[in-house]
Amino acid sequence: MADAPLFDRLCLLGVGLIGSSIARAAKARGDIARTVVAHAKTPATLERVRELGIVDVVEPDAAKAVQGADCVIFCVPVGAYAEVGAVVAPHLKPGAIVTDVGSTKGSVVRDLSPLLPAGVHLVPAHPMAGTEHSGPDAGFAELFEGRYCIVTPLPDSDPAAVEKVREFWRRCGSMIETLDPATHDKVVAIVSHLPHLIAFTICSTADDLAEETKEAVLKFAASGFRDFTRIAASDPTMWRDVFLNNREALLEMLARFTEDAHALGRAVRWGQAEYIEDRIRRGRKIRRGLIERKQA
Amino acid sequence: MADAPLFDRLCLLGVGLIGSSIARAAKARGDIARTVVAHAKTPATLERVRELGIVDVVEPDAAKAVQGADCVIFCVPVGAYAEVGAVVAPHLKPGAIVTDVGSTKGSVVRDLSPLLPAGVHLVPAHPMAGTEHSGPDAGFAELFEGRYCIVTPLPDSDPAAVEKVREFWRRCGSMIETLDPATHDKVVAIVSHLPHLIAFTICSTADDLAEETKEAVLKFAASGFRDFTRIAASDPTMWRDVFLNNREALLEMLARFTEDAHALGRAVRWGQAEYIEDRIRRGRKIRRGLIERKQA
Fold first, then answer.
1. Cβ–Cβ of B218/A279 closer than 8 Å?
2. In B113-246, alpha helices (H)
3. I want to staple A36 with a disulfide (CB 3.0 to 4.6 A). Which of A55, A122, A268, B121 is the partner?
């Protein structure tokens, strides 16, 4: 016999790539929630979610959507948490778990903690999964399988609530890790946010080149540049919010990176072959580490 | 009936990823060369090429390898052209075509032109194909299929020799484009060399992080960072030589890129949401261009 559903009523605030993947995973398995309610901001998304039939209730009013839910998951861009949080906080059920899927965690604590009534449990989380596509059509039930989900409880988080969030992600197929929010934000700054900032930058640098060269850029996009454009195709609003909400860690990593890029550029200018080779070998070492961990 | 072979005796100087892929393509098709001779520097590579059985003659002496060849292809790192060129130049057959597969073209003209005897035709070329793997085992006959090959003839190149090099790459399955060497070097600086410099840099920046964070970097390498490590896994000697031999164009593109990265970092620091979104959208535009051209 399958396990009993983890939640009676699960509420998704936002139904993009991640939210719609959670909805599909819950539908595909019987043990996540008895009822899934989804709220989205735009009528077009609400209508599309209805058409897709991936949730039980589609609710245009965020305050109504959270009513009676024993778990509410913020799946909107992290820049919208404070606004959405202010709308829904007074309507949360006592004892409800509030969690999220955002790529920054310090900002969640900053934006949601002050709004939540006593007896509501905040347990931020970050599923390390995604594609360059966005919107309710982009999701799929298997998105989280075999991927890490980082849970970042606060020192005073209720252990039972933390364990429910962990179990939720286990049932979605994820491997669970626990970090404090500040360490999380530093790690994702280097593994995810800085690579995206760099990819957006090199693509827009290319776009600025003279018309003639730009045509050639597109024509001869070798594998190197093609990978950058894939990363750079991600959702603009989401990434704008991620950058603005992980400002300090991102700027620190950007500073380290540009120092290193300048040092490598200087070695190219002065013909320092050994220095260049050494830096290239360091990159390969990281790659080997990924292959050994089967993350490559 | 198949076309007659394009060359009687084709000589490959270097049998890494590209050289061994040419050897395999020539073996797979009957219309490229009657005999393929390969020279490599290290006994281990020579032995491995013998074992693989992908060429007709394995020749440890570069000067002997080129003797009687009507086409000689430099497949060594571009930094070795001057040294290898000095060894082979006196032994080239009158009327022979000398071409190459290097990622920089101005340097080929600089390094080989002064060495070649009158009556030998220099026609530099650059197949825009590759993987992150290197060595004679990494090659495969289909590597060049559907990929661009940029031919960069000199103003005084013999038209018949240029056409033979074009036809050679056509028979390898490539689409042929023609550029002058300087334009080629600028275009590849942005589409290929700078992306590699950036990927090597971010991977070595990550490697420099404190032990604790580095472990997490490997553990949580999200898709963004994983793509960078794939690019950064490329051959160190080859890329060192590419950087040193396309110095000016690469440093110009690096300067443009770091200006743009600093501008985006500044927008993050000052919370300029619109600027950030605009730069992200520019990246998506480039991506759409690739998809329309079926290069994505």
1. no
2. 159-171, 181-188, 194-208, 211-219, 223-232, 236-245
3. A55
Residue B47 confidence (pLDDT): 96
Q: Is B29 helix (H, G, I), strand (E, B) or coil?
A: coil
Please tell me the predicted confidence (pLDDT) of residue B235: 84
The interface predicted TM-score of the complex, written ipTM, equals 0.84
CB pairs under 8 A between A and B: 307
Which residues 32-91 of A have a C-beta within 8 angstroms of B? 79
Distance from A56 to chain B by nearest Cα, in Å? 31
Of residues A177, A206, A261, nearest to B198 (C-beta)? A261
pLDDT tens digits, one per residue of B6-42 = 999 999 999 999 999 999 999 999 899 999 999 999 9
| Cβ contact, residue pair A218, B244, below 8 Å | no
Superfamily of domain B183-292: 6-phosphogluconate dehydrogenase C-terminal like domain (1.10.3660.10)
* Of B103, B99, B125, B93, residue with least CA distance to B112: B99
Answer yes or no: are the C-beta atoms of A78 and A105 closer than 8 Å. Answer: no
| Nearest-angstrom CA–CA distance, B201 and A281 | 10
Interface of A with B in 141-180 (CB under 8 A): 148, 150, 177, 179
How crowded is the C-beta side of B218, counted as CA atoms within 13 Å? 21
Reported as a single tens digit per residue, the pLDDT across B99-139 is 999 999 999 999 999 999 999 999 999 999 888 788 999 99
Q: Which fold has domain A7-179?
A: Rossmann fold (3.40.50)
Q: Note whether A7-179 and A183-292 share their fold.
A: no
